[in-house]
Amino acid sequence: MPETRTTPPTPPAPGTTGPRDGLKRNGIGTGGIAFLVISAAAPLTVMAGVAPVALASGGIGAPAGYLLAGIVLAVFAVGFMAMTRHAKAAGGFYTYIALSMGRTAGLASAVLAIVSYNCLQIGVYGLFAVQTQAMLHVLFGLDVPWPAVALAAVAAVWFLGYRGIDVGAKVLGVLLVAETAILALMGAGILAGGGAGGITAGSFAPDAVFNPGVLAILGICFAAFMGFESTVLYRREARDPDRSVPRATFIAVGFMSVFYAFIVWTAVQAYGDAGAVAAAGDLGEGMFFATIAEYVGPWAEAAMYVLIVTSVYASQLAFHNAINRYVYMLAQDGVLPAFLGRTHPKYKSPHRAGQLQTLHAGAVIAICAAAGADPHQQLLIWVDTPGIFGIVGLQGIVAVAALRYFRRHPGAGVHPLVRPLTMAAAVLLFAVVVLIALNIELLTFAGPFTNTIIIAVAPLVFLGGLLAARWLKRRRPATYSRIGSFETHDA
Protein backbone atom coordinates (compact mmCIF):
# COMPACT_ATOMS: atom_id res chain seq x y z
CA MET A 1 0.00 0.00 0.00
CA PRO A 2 1.55 3.34 -0.97
CA GLU A 3 2.26 5.67 1.89
CA THR A 4 0.12 8.78 2.39
CA ARG A 5 1.38 11.94 4.04
CA THR A 6 -0.60 12.81 7.13
CA THR A 7 2.17 14.29 9.25
CA PRO A 8 3.04 17.99 9.42
CA PRO A 9 5.55 19.29 6.87
CA THR A 10 9.20 18.70 7.56
CA PRO A 11 11.22 21.86 8.30
CA PRO A 12 13.62 23.00 5.58
CA ALA A 13 16.85 21.11 5.43
CA PRO A 14 20.08 23.04 5.79
CA GLY A 15 20.99 24.80 2.60
CA THR A 16 17.45 25.07 1.26
CA THR A 17 15.46 28.24 0.89
CA GLY A 18 14.65 30.19 3.99
CA PRO A 19 12.27 33.08 4.69
CA ARG A 20 14.42 35.66 2.88
CA ASP A 21 14.99 33.54 -0.19
CA GLY A 22 11.57 32.52 -1.47
CA LEU A 23 9.17 33.14 -4.33
CA LYS A 24 7.52 36.55 -4.55
CA ARG A 25 4.37 36.61 -2.44
CA ASN A 26 1.17 38.32 -3.62
CA GLY A 27 2.81 38.95 -6.99
CA ILE A 28 -0.03 37.77 -9.22
CA GLY A 29 -3.83 37.65 -9.16
CA THR A 30 -6.54 35.66 -10.92
CA GLY A 31 -6.10 37.50 -14.21
CA GLY A 32 -2.33 37.13 -14.21
CA ILE A 33 -2.51 33.40 -13.55
CA ALA A 34 -5.12 32.97 -16.29
CA PHE A 35 -2.90 34.92 -18.72
CA LEU A 36 0.04 32.65 -17.88
CA VAL A 37 -1.78 29.39 -18.52
CA ILE A 38 -3.76 30.51 -21.58
CA SER A 39 -0.55 31.92 -23.03
CA ALA A 40 1.09 28.52 -22.53
CA ALA A 41 -1.59 27.05 -24.81
CA ALA A 42 -0.77 29.74 -27.45
CA PRO A 43 -4.29 30.24 -28.91
CA LEU A 44 -3.17 31.82 -32.19
CA THR A 45 -0.53 29.16 -32.72
CA VAL A 46 -2.84 26.19 -32.12
CA MET A 47 -5.51 27.76 -34.30
CA ALA A 48 -3.45 28.94 -37.29
CA GLY A 49 -0.81 26.22 -37.04
CA VAL A 50 -2.75 23.12 -35.97
CA ALA A 51 -6.52 23.60 -36.42
CA PRO A 52 -6.27 23.07 -40.22
CA VAL A 53 -4.91 19.57 -39.50
CA ALA A 54 -7.86 18.94 -37.17
CA LEU A 55 -10.28 20.06 -39.91
CA ALA A 56 -8.59 18.04 -42.63
CA SER A 57 -8.61 14.85 -40.51
CA GLY A 58 -11.73 15.30 -38.37
CA GLY A 59 -14.06 16.95 -40.84
CA ILE A 60 -16.39 19.87 -40.16
CA GLY A 61 -17.12 18.42 -36.70
CA ALA A 62 -13.67 19.53 -35.53
CA PRO A 63 -15.10 22.51 -33.56
CA ALA A 64 -17.04 20.03 -31.43
CA GLY A 65 -13.77 18.22 -30.71
CA TYR A 66 -12.45 21.31 -28.94
CA LEU A 67 -15.66 21.60 -26.95
CA LEU A 68 -15.46 17.93 -25.93
CA ALA A 69 -11.85 18.37 -24.81
CA GLY A 70 -12.82 21.45 -22.81
CA ILE A 71 -15.69 19.62 -21.11
CA VAL A 72 -13.46 16.70 -20.10
CA LEU A 73 -10.83 19.07 -18.70
CA ALA A 74 -13.47 21.13 -16.86
CA VAL A 75 -14.73 17.93 -15.23
CA PHE A 76 -11.12 17.07 -14.31
CA ALA A 77 -10.65 20.56 -12.85
CA VAL A 78 -13.53 19.99 -10.39
CA GLY A 79 -11.62 17.39 -8.38
CA PHE A 80 -8.24 18.99 -9.11
CA MET A 81 -9.35 22.31 -7.64
CA ALA A 82 -11.16 20.67 -4.72
CA MET A 83 -7.74 19.58 -3.47
CA THR A 84 -6.22 23.08 -3.56
CA ARG A 85 -7.18 23.69 0.07
CA HIS A 86 -5.27 20.57 1.09
CA ALA A 87 -2.19 20.71 -1.19
CA LYS A 88 -0.70 24.05 -0.24
CA ALA A 89 2.70 23.83 -1.93
CA ALA A 90 3.45 25.20 -5.39
CA GLY A 91 4.48 21.81 -6.72
CA GLY A 92 1.61 21.17 -9.13
CA PHE A 93 1.06 17.50 -9.98
CA TYR A 94 3.99 16.58 -7.74
CA THR A 95 2.35 17.91 -4.59
CA TYR A 96 -1.11 16.53 -5.31
CA ILE A 97 0.04 13.02 -6.14
CA ALA A 98 2.56 12.85 -3.26
CA LEU A 99 -0.12 14.01 -0.81
CA SER A 100 -2.55 11.27 -1.84
CA MET A 101 -0.54 8.41 -3.29
CA GLY A 102 2.75 8.68 -1.44
CA ARG A 103 6.27 9.97 -1.99
CA THR A 104 7.31 7.36 -4.57
CA ALA A 105 4.45 8.15 -6.93
CA GLY A 106 4.91 11.84 -6.19
CA LEU A 107 8.56 11.91 -7.23
CA ALA A 108 7.85 9.84 -10.36
CA SER A 109 5.15 12.34 -11.29
CA ALA A 110 7.50 15.26 -10.73
CA VAL A 111 10.12 13.71 -13.01
CA LEU A 112 7.51 13.05 -15.70
CA ALA A 113 6.13 16.59 -15.37
CA ILE A 114 9.57 18.18 -15.75
CA VAL A 115 10.41 16.05 -18.79
CA SER A 116 6.97 16.61 -20.36
CA TYR A 117 7.01 20.38 -19.90
CA ASN A 118 10.57 20.49 -21.24
CA CYS A 119 9.44 18.55 -24.32
CA LEU A 120 6.59 20.99 -24.86
CA GLN A 121 8.71 24.09 -24.27
CA ILE A 122 11.84 23.11 -26.15
CA GLY A 123 9.96 21.61 -29.07
CA VAL A 124 8.09 24.86 -29.56
CA TYR A 125 11.40 26.61 -30.32
CA GLY A 126 11.22 24.76 -33.63
CA LEU A 127 7.82 26.30 -34.30
CA PHE A 128 9.08 29.72 -33.24
CA ALA A 129 11.94 29.43 -35.71
CA VAL A 130 9.66 28.35 -38.58
CA GLN A 131 7.05 31.03 -37.92
CA THR A 132 9.66 33.77 -37.48
CA GLN A 133 11.40 32.71 -40.69
CA ALA A 134 8.05 32.91 -42.52
CA MET A 135 7.27 36.32 -41.04
CA LEU A 136 10.68 37.78 -41.90
CA HIS A 137 10.50 36.37 -45.43
CA VAL A 138 6.94 37.48 -46.19
CA LEU A 139 7.17 40.94 -44.65
CA PHE A 140 10.82 41.87 -45.21
CA GLY A 141 12.21 39.40 -47.74
CA LEU A 142 14.82 38.19 -45.24
CA ASP A 143 16.08 34.62 -44.90
CA VAL A 144 17.53 33.86 -41.46
CA PRO A 145 18.90 30.44 -40.36
CA TRP A 146 16.45 28.75 -38.01
CA PRO A 147 19.02 27.91 -35.26
CA ALA A 148 19.89 31.60 -34.91
CA VAL A 149 16.20 32.47 -34.50
CA ALA A 150 15.62 29.69 -31.98
CA LEU A 151 18.65 30.58 -29.84
CA ALA A 152 17.62 34.24 -29.82
CA ALA A 153 14.23 33.14 -28.51
CA VAL A 154 15.91 31.08 -25.77
CA ALA A 155 17.73 34.21 -24.58
CA ALA A 156 14.56 36.33 -24.70
CA VAL A 157 12.58 33.75 -22.71
CA TRP A 158 15.33 33.51 -20.10
CA PHE A 159 15.38 37.29 -19.67
CA LEU A 160 11.70 37.69 -18.84
CA GLY A 161 11.68 34.57 -16.67
CA TYR A 162 14.63 36.02 -14.76
CA ARG A 163 12.78 39.29 -14.14
CA GLY A 164 10.04 37.63 -12.12
CA ILE A 165 6.49 36.37 -12.34
CA ASP A 166 4.76 39.76 -12.22
CA VAL A 167 6.75 41.16 -15.16
CA GLY A 168 6.18 38.00 -17.19
CA ALA A 169 2.43 38.02 -16.46
CA LYS A 170 2.10 41.63 -17.66
CA VAL A 171 3.91 40.90 -20.92
CA LEU A 172 1.90 37.72 -21.47
CA GLY A 173 -1.31 39.63 -20.81
CA VAL A 174 -0.56 42.12 -23.57
CA LEU A 175 0.49 39.42 -26.03
CA LEU A 176 -2.54 37.25 -25.22
CA VAL A 177 -4.98 40.11 -25.80
CA ALA A 178 -3.32 40.87 -29.15
CA GLU A 179 -3.37 37.29 -30.47
CA THR A 180 -6.93 36.74 -29.25
CA ALA A 181 -8.04 39.98 -30.91
CA ILE A 182 -6.66 39.04 -34.34
CA LEU A 183 -8.47 35.68 -34.23
CA ALA A 184 -11.69 37.34 -33.07
CA LEU A 185 -11.32 39.88 -35.88
CA MET A 186 -11.04 37.06 -38.41
CA GLY A 187 -14.13 35.36 -37.01
CA ALA A 188 -16.11 38.60 -37.02
CA GLY A 189 -15.06 39.32 -40.59
CA ILE A 190 -16.23 35.90 -41.73
CA LEU A 191 -19.61 36.26 -40.01
CA ALA A 192 -20.08 39.81 -41.28
CA GLY A 193 -19.33 38.63 -44.82
CA GLY A 194 -21.81 35.77 -44.57
CA GLY A 195 -19.15 33.10 -45.10
CA ALA A 196 -18.89 31.17 -48.34
CA GLY A 197 -22.61 30.54 -48.68
CA GLY A 198 -24.42 31.63 -45.55
CA ILE A 199 -23.88 30.80 -41.88
CA THR A 200 -24.74 27.23 -40.86
CA ALA A 201 -24.54 25.04 -37.76
CA GLY A 202 -23.48 21.92 -39.64
CA SER A 203 -20.37 21.51 -37.48
CA PHE A 204 -22.58 20.72 -34.49
CA ALA A 205 -24.98 18.35 -36.23
CA PRO A 206 -24.95 14.81 -34.73
CA ASP A 207 -23.50 13.21 -37.87
CA ALA A 208 -20.58 15.68 -37.83
CA VAL A 209 -19.95 15.53 -34.06
CA PHE A 210 -20.04 11.72 -33.85
CA ASN A 211 -17.96 11.22 -36.97
CA PRO A 212 -15.10 8.78 -36.13
CA GLY A 213 -12.71 11.46 -37.40
CA VAL A 214 -13.59 13.69 -34.43
CA LEU A 215 -12.51 10.98 -31.97
CA ALA A 216 -9.34 10.51 -33.98
CA ILE A 217 -8.36 14.18 -33.57
CA LEU A 218 -9.03 14.41 -29.82
CA GLY A 219 -5.26 14.30 -29.26
CA ILE A 220 -4.92 17.45 -31.36
CA CYS A 221 -7.79 19.07 -29.46
CA PHE A 222 -6.36 18.22 -26.03
CA ALA A 223 -2.94 19.48 -27.12
CA ALA A 224 -4.55 22.90 -27.61
CA PHE A 225 -5.11 23.11 -23.83
CA MET A 226 -1.59 22.16 -22.73
CA GLY A 227 -0.53 24.17 -19.69
CA PHE A 228 -3.94 25.06 -18.26
CA GLU A 229 -3.32 22.76 -15.28
CA SER A 230 -0.21 24.72 -14.29
CA THR A 231 -2.31 27.29 -12.39
CA VAL A 232 -1.44 25.49 -9.14
CA LEU A 233 2.29 26.07 -9.71
CA TYR A 234 1.77 29.76 -8.93
CA ARG A 235 0.01 29.20 -5.61
CA ARG A 236 2.86 30.57 -3.47
CA GLU A 237 3.01 33.73 -5.62
CA ALA A 238 -0.75 34.27 -5.89
CA ARG A 239 -2.94 36.72 -4.06
CA ASP A 240 -5.62 34.81 -2.10
CA PRO A 241 -4.63 31.47 -3.70
CA ASP A 242 -7.63 29.52 -2.38
CA ARG A 243 -9.81 31.73 -4.58
CA SER A 244 -7.56 32.98 -7.37
CA VAL A 245 -6.12 29.60 -8.43
CA PRO A 246 -9.50 27.82 -8.92
CA ARG A 247 -10.97 30.89 -10.61
CA ALA A 248 -8.04 31.16 -13.01
CA THR A 249 -8.27 27.43 -13.80
CA PHE A 250 -11.95 27.48 -14.72
CA ILE A 251 -11.59 30.79 -16.58
CA ALA A 252 -8.74 29.34 -18.63
CA VAL A 253 -10.41 26.06 -19.61
CA GLY A 254 -13.79 27.71 -20.19
CA PHE A 255 -12.41 30.48 -22.36
CA MET A 256 -10.20 28.21 -24.43
CA SER A 257 -12.87 25.59 -25.15
CA VAL A 258 -15.48 28.12 -26.28
CA PHE A 259 -13.04 30.36 -28.14
CA TYR A 260 -11.34 27.51 -29.99
CA ALA A 261 -14.67 26.01 -31.04
CA PHE A 262 -15.91 29.41 -32.23
CA ILE A 263 -12.81 30.19 -34.29
CA VAL A 264 -12.66 26.78 -35.98
CA TRP A 265 -16.40 26.98 -36.68
CA THR A 266 -15.96 30.37 -38.34
CA ALA A 267 -13.11 28.91 -40.42
CA VAL A 268 -15.58 26.28 -41.64
CA GLN A 269 -18.03 29.05 -42.53
CA ALA A 270 -15.34 30.82 -44.56
CA TYR A 271 -15.24 27.89 -47.03
CA GLY A 272 -18.63 26.31 -46.43
CA ASP A 273 -19.51 22.90 -45.03
CA ALA A 274 -18.75 21.31 -48.38
CA GLY A 275 -15.42 23.03 -49.02
CA ALA A 276 -13.79 23.50 -45.59
CA VAL A 277 -12.13 20.09 -45.36
CA ALA A 278 -10.63 20.34 -48.84
CA ALA A 279 -9.43 23.89 -48.12
CA ALA A 280 -7.76 22.77 -44.91
CA GLY A 281 -5.99 19.98 -46.76
CA ASP A 282 -4.90 22.18 -49.66
CA LEU A 283 -3.88 25.30 -47.71
CA GLY A 284 -2.53 23.62 -44.56
CA GLU A 285 -0.88 26.10 -42.20
CA GLY A 286 -1.66 28.89 -44.65
CA MET A 287 -5.42 28.46 -44.24
CA PHE A 288 -5.95 31.07 -41.53
CA PHE A 289 -3.63 33.57 -43.21
CA ALA A 290 -5.49 33.24 -46.52
CA THR A 291 -8.82 33.46 -44.71
CA ILE A 292 -8.07 36.66 -42.81
CA ALA A 293 -6.60 38.24 -45.95
CA GLU A 294 -9.84 37.54 -47.82
CA TYR A 295 -12.34 38.49 -45.14
CA VAL A 296 -10.50 41.30 -43.32
CA GLY A 297 -7.65 42.48 -45.54
CA PRO A 298 -3.95 42.08 -46.35
CA TRP A 299 -2.97 44.26 -43.41
CA ALA A 300 -4.60 41.74 -41.04
CA GLU A 301 -2.67 38.90 -42.69
CA ALA A 302 0.58 40.81 -42.05
CA ALA A 303 -0.47 41.41 -38.44
CA MET A 304 -1.22 37.71 -38.00
CA TYR A 305 2.28 36.81 -39.22
CA VAL A 306 3.74 39.03 -36.49
CA LEU A 307 1.34 37.98 -33.75
CA ILE A 308 1.82 34.26 -34.31
CA VAL A 309 5.50 34.80 -33.50
CA THR A 310 4.63 36.60 -30.26
CA SER A 311 2.07 33.86 -29.52
CA VAL A 312 4.74 31.17 -29.70
CA TYR A 313 7.07 33.31 -27.57
CA ALA A 314 4.35 33.70 -24.93
CA SER A 315 3.87 29.94 -24.86
CA GLN A 316 7.59 29.35 -24.37
CA LEU A 317 7.77 31.84 -21.51
CA ALA A 318 4.77 30.28 -19.75
CA PHE A 319 6.22 26.76 -19.98
CA HIS A 320 9.63 28.08 -18.90
CA ASN A 321 8.02 29.45 -15.73
CA ALA A 322 6.23 26.17 -15.07
CA ILE A 323 9.39 24.08 -15.47
CA ASN A 324 11.35 26.35 -13.18
CA ARG A 325 8.82 25.99 -10.39
CA TYR A 326 8.87 22.20 -10.56
CA VAL A 327 12.67 22.22 -10.34
CA TYR A 328 12.54 24.81 -7.55
CA MET A 329 10.17 22.65 -5.47
CA LEU A 330 12.24 19.49 -5.93
CA ALA A 331 15.33 21.42 -4.83
CA GLN A 332 13.41 22.74 -1.83
CA ASP A 333 12.55 19.17 -0.90
CA GLY A 334 16.21 18.16 -1.15
CA VAL A 335 15.84 15.89 -4.19
CA LEU A 336 17.77 18.24 -6.51
CA PRO A 337 20.82 20.33 -5.56
CA ALA A 338 20.02 23.12 -3.10
CA PHE A 339 21.30 25.92 -5.34
CA LEU A 340 18.37 25.25 -7.72
CA GLY A 341 16.00 26.07 -4.87
CA ARG A 342 17.25 29.63 -4.43
CA THR A 343 15.46 32.68 -5.77
CA HIS A 344 16.81 36.00 -7.02
CA PRO A 345 17.27 38.45 -4.12
CA LYS A 346 15.49 41.26 -6.01
CA TYR A 347 13.07 39.67 -8.48
CA LYS A 348 12.22 36.60 -6.36
CA SER A 349 12.32 34.42 -9.45
CA PRO A 350 13.74 30.86 -9.36
CA HIS A 351 16.58 32.14 -11.54
CA ARG A 352 18.97 29.24 -10.92
CA ALA A 353 16.39 26.76 -12.16
CA GLY A 354 15.76 29.11 -15.09
CA GLN A 355 19.44 29.18 -16.00
CA LEU A 356 19.57 25.38 -16.03
CA GLN A 357 16.47 25.12 -18.23
CA THR A 358 17.87 27.75 -20.61
CA LEU A 359 21.15 25.86 -21.01
CA HIS A 360 19.23 22.63 -21.58
CA ALA A 361 17.06 24.22 -24.29
CA GLY A 362 20.08 25.75 -26.00
CA ALA A 363 21.89 22.42 -26.00
CA VAL A 364 18.96 20.54 -27.57
CA ILE A 365 18.61 23.20 -30.29
CA ALA A 366 22.35 23.07 -31.00
CA ILE A 367 22.29 19.27 -31.28
CA CYS A 368 19.29 19.36 -33.63
CA ALA A 369 20.98 22.01 -35.77
CA ALA A 370 24.23 20.02 -35.94
CA ALA A 371 22.30 16.88 -36.91
CA GLY A 372 20.49 18.70 -39.70
CA ALA A 373 17.07 18.13 -38.11
CA ASP A 374 14.00 19.76 -39.56
CA PRO A 375 12.79 22.40 -37.04
CA HIS A 376 9.12 21.62 -37.65
CA GLN A 377 9.04 17.85 -38.06
CA GLN A 378 11.83 16.70 -35.74
CA LEU A 379 12.22 19.51 -33.20
CA LEU A 380 8.59 20.59 -32.87
CA ILE A 381 6.44 17.54 -33.53
CA TRP A 382 8.69 14.68 -32.45
CA VAL A 383 9.86 16.46 -29.28
CA ASP A 384 6.45 17.91 -28.36
CA THR A 385 4.33 14.76 -28.70
CA PRO A 386 5.86 12.82 -25.74
CA GLY A 387 5.04 15.90 -23.65
CA ILE A 388 1.37 15.68 -24.66
CA PHE A 389 1.27 12.02 -23.57
CA GLY A 390 2.97 12.87 -20.29
CA ILE A 391 0.71 15.77 -19.32
CA VAL A 392 -2.60 14.10 -20.22
CA GLY A 393 -1.45 10.95 -18.42
CA LEU A 394 -0.52 12.98 -15.35
CA GLN A 395 -3.94 14.61 -15.39
CA GLY A 396 -5.46 11.12 -15.22
CA ILE A 397 -3.17 10.18 -12.31
CA VAL A 398 -4.10 13.39 -10.47
CA ALA A 399 -7.79 12.53 -10.88
CA VAL A 400 -7.10 9.11 -9.32
CA ALA A 401 -5.10 10.81 -6.55
CA ALA A 402 -8.00 13.17 -5.81
CA LEU A 403 -10.42 10.24 -5.56
CA ARG A 404 -8.08 8.43 -3.21
CA TYR A 405 -7.62 11.52 -1.05
CA PHE A 406 -11.35 12.21 -0.72
CA ARG A 407 -12.03 8.55 0.14
CA ARG A 408 -9.35 8.60 2.87
CA HIS A 409 -10.50 11.99 4.17
CA PRO A 410 -14.31 11.93 4.25
CA GLY A 411 -14.27 15.16 6.24
CA ALA A 412 -12.47 17.07 3.47
CA GLY A 413 -15.61 19.11 2.89
CA VAL A 414 -16.18 18.51 -0.83
CA HIS A 415 -19.51 18.60 -2.64
CA PRO A 416 -21.09 15.14 -3.16
CA LEU A 417 -20.80 15.55 -6.95
CA VAL A 418 -17.02 15.99 -6.81
CA ARG A 419 -16.28 12.29 -6.40
CA PRO A 420 -18.33 10.95 -9.35
CA LEU A 421 -17.14 13.79 -11.59
CA THR A 422 -13.53 13.10 -10.67
CA MET A 423 -13.98 9.38 -11.36
CA ALA A 424 -15.47 10.22 -14.77
CA ALA A 425 -12.52 12.54 -15.47
CA ALA A 426 -10.00 9.78 -14.67
CA VAL A 427 -11.70 7.32 -17.03
CA LEU A 428 -12.02 9.89 -19.81
CA LEU A 429 -8.44 11.13 -19.54
CA PHE A 430 -6.94 7.65 -19.70
CA ALA A 431 -9.24 6.93 -22.65
CA VAL A 432 -7.84 10.04 -24.35
CA VAL A 433 -4.28 8.75 -23.84
CA VAL A 434 -5.29 5.53 -25.62
CA LEU A 435 -6.97 7.49 -28.43
CA ILE A 436 -3.87 9.63 -28.91
CA ALA A 437 -1.72 6.50 -29.12
CA LEU A 438 -4.06 4.86 -31.63
CA ASN A 439 -4.06 7.95 -33.83
CA ILE A 440 -0.54 9.19 -33.21
CA GLU A 441 0.28 9.44 -36.90
CA LEU A 442 -2.09 12.44 -37.07
CA LEU A 443 0.24 14.25 -34.68
CA THR A 444 3.65 13.05 -35.84
CA PHE A 445 3.30 12.13 -39.53
CA ALA A 446 6.00 9.55 -38.73
CA GLY A 447 6.46 5.82 -39.27
CA PRO A 448 5.68 2.99 -36.80
CA PHE A 449 9.22 2.78 -35.35
CA THR A 450 9.41 6.52 -34.54
CA ASN A 451 5.85 6.52 -33.20
CA THR A 452 6.60 3.58 -30.90
CA ILE A 453 9.57 5.43 -29.41
CA ILE A 454 7.50 8.59 -28.94
CA ILE A 455 4.71 6.68 -27.19
CA ALA A 456 7.22 4.87 -24.93
CA VAL A 457 8.93 8.02 -23.61
CA ALA A 458 6.35 8.99 -20.96
CA PRO A 459 5.91 5.54 -19.34
CA LEU A 460 9.68 4.97 -19.34
CA VAL A 461 10.29 8.34 -17.68
CA PHE A 462 7.64 7.58 -15.05
CA LEU A 463 9.22 4.18 -14.40
CA GLY A 464 12.61 5.87 -14.03
CA GLY A 465 11.11 8.24 -11.47
CA LEU A 466 9.69 5.32 -9.49
CA LEU A 467 13.10 3.59 -9.45
CA ALA A 468 14.80 6.84 -8.39
CA ALA A 469 12.34 7.22 -5.52
CA ARG A 470 12.93 3.68 -4.32
CA TRP A 471 16.70 4.26 -4.49
CA LEU A 472 16.32 7.39 -2.38
CA LYS A 473 14.22 5.51 0.15
CA ARG A 474 17.00 2.92 0.60
CA ARG A 475 20.10 5.11 0.30
CA ARG A 476 18.96 8.61 1.37
CA PRO A 477 15.97 8.11 3.68
CA ALA A 478 16.17 11.64 5.08
CA THR A 479 15.82 13.10 1.58
CA TYR A 480 13.07 10.63 0.73
CA SER A 481 11.10 11.70 3.80
CA ARG A 482 11.06 15.27 2.51
CA ILE A 483 9.47 14.47 -0.88
CA GLY A 484 6.32 16.55 -1.22
CA SER A 485 6.76 18.08 2.23
CA PHE A 486 7.71 21.69 1.48
CA GLU A 487 4.69 23.91 2.08
CA THR A 488 5.12 27.08 4.04
CA HIS A 489 8.79 28.01 4.24
CA ASP A 490 9.17 30.32 1.24
CA ALA A 491 7.71 33.31 2.99
- Main sheet makeup: none
Into which percentage range does the β-strand content fall? under 5%
With helices defined by DSSP (H or I, 4 residues minimum), what is the helix count? 20
Tell how many strands the DSSP assignment holds: 0
Number of spatially distinct domains? 1
Which CATH architecture?
A: Up-down Bundle
Q: Percent helix among the residues?
A: over 70%
CATH fold title: Amino acid/polyamine transporter I
Provide a descriptive summary of the structure in words:
- Keywords: Cell membrane, Membrane, Transmembrane, Transmembrane helix.
- By secondary structure, the protein is mostly helical.
- The protein has a single domain (30-480), classed as Amino acid/polyamine transporter I (Up-down Bundle), CATH 1.20.1740.10.
- It has 20 helices and no strands.
- The protein has helices at 30-41, 43-58, 62-82, 93-101, 103-140, 146-163, 165-192, 206-209, 212-216, 218-223, 241-271, 276-283, 287-295, 298-332, 351-370, 375-408, 418-438, 441-444, 448-475, 477-480.
- Helix 1 (30-41) packs across helix 14.
- The radius of gyration is 22 Å and the shape is globular.
Brief characterization of the structure:
By secondary structure, this protein is mainly alpha-helical. The chain contains 20 helices and no strands. The radius of gyration is 22 Å and the shape is globular.
List its salient traits.
APC_superfamily, about 500 residues, mainly alpha, disordered C terminus, globular, APC family permease
Topology record:
Blueprint: H1 30-41, H2 43-58, H3 62-82, H4 93-101, H5 103-140, H6 146-163, H7 165-192, H8 206-209, H9 212-216, H10 218-223, H11 241-271, H12 276-283, H13 287-295, H14 298-332, H15 351-370, H16 375-408, H17 418-438, H18 441-444, H19 448-475, H20 477-480
Helix pairs in contact: 1-7, 1-11, 1-14, 2-11, 2-12, 2-14, 3-11, 3-16, 3-17, 4-5, 4-16, 5-6, 5-14, 5-15, 5-16, 5-19, 6-7, 6-14, 6-15, 7-11, 7-13, 7-14, 13-14, 14-15, 16-17, 16-19
